[in-house]
Amino acid sequence: MHEQTASTQRLPASDRRRQLVETALDFFSRKGFGGTTTKEIAAAAGVTEAIIFRHFPTKQDLYNAVLDHTHESDRTAECIEQWKACMARNDDEGLIRAMIEKVLEGYRRDQRGHRVLLFAALEGHEAALEYNRQFSLPIVELLIQYVARRQSEGALRPGDPGAVIAAAYGMAAQYATMTQMFGFHTNSTDQRMADSFVAIVMHGIQANQHN
């Protein structure tokens, strides 16, 4: 007589789907898309492959669900609303700080989503990279448009607005990658680093010269 596992019998469809996505995220973040099989995901989740394909017709569909999950768990929508509030009151420094703090907090809370995207780049998984770009580019464009507006108003110095966003995000992301993923240690806290990054973006690094 065939016996199903307790987890197969008891979980509602929504909970089962969430469990499969979480399990798949663990594997994709450690082995990449190409190095992960649905068979091992199923075994780790205590189900058959047929259960996976009941919820996700293909491995790519499961992978896309993982990408969606990482964006949702990163509280991106909530952060965008916070950023828009800064934009509405022309709080340039507050916006830059909120961006930087989101990056640092996101890496510290859960690195798996970042690892999945790094694997996608290394594997040349263009479908995954394009999927992520479609999500990310509208957010980047929103930020760039804000910086361009503030430059036109004379509140920010002239220059490529995309470079301003890249500088703010890039400093935080590189620091988080080095410390949270590559194991480099510093004697500073995330808050102190955020303060420094904000100061660099807003004021640069050159000392004021008084003639």
Overview of this protein structure:
The protein is mostly helical and 211 residues long. The chain folds into two domains: 6-69, Arc Repressor Mutant, subunit A; 75-203, Tetracycline Repressor, domain 2 (Orthogonal Bundle). It is built from eleven helices and no strands. The longest helix has 27 residues, at 126-152. Residues 1-7 have low confidence and may be disordered.
Percentage beta strand: under 5%
N→C terminal distance? 90 Å
Element order: H for helix, E for strand: HHHHHHHHHHH
- Helix count? 11
What's the short story on this structure?
The chain is an all-alpha fold. It has helices at residues 6-10, 13-31, 38-45, 49-55, 59-73, 76-88, 92-109, 112-123, 126-152, 161-181, 190-203.
List keywords for this structure.
2 domains, 211 residues, Tetracycline Repressor, domain 2, mainly alpha, 0% strand
Topology:
Layout lengths: L5 H5 L2 H19 L6 H8 L3 H7 L3 H15 L2 H13 L3 H18 L2 H12 L2 H27 L8 H21 L8 H14 L8
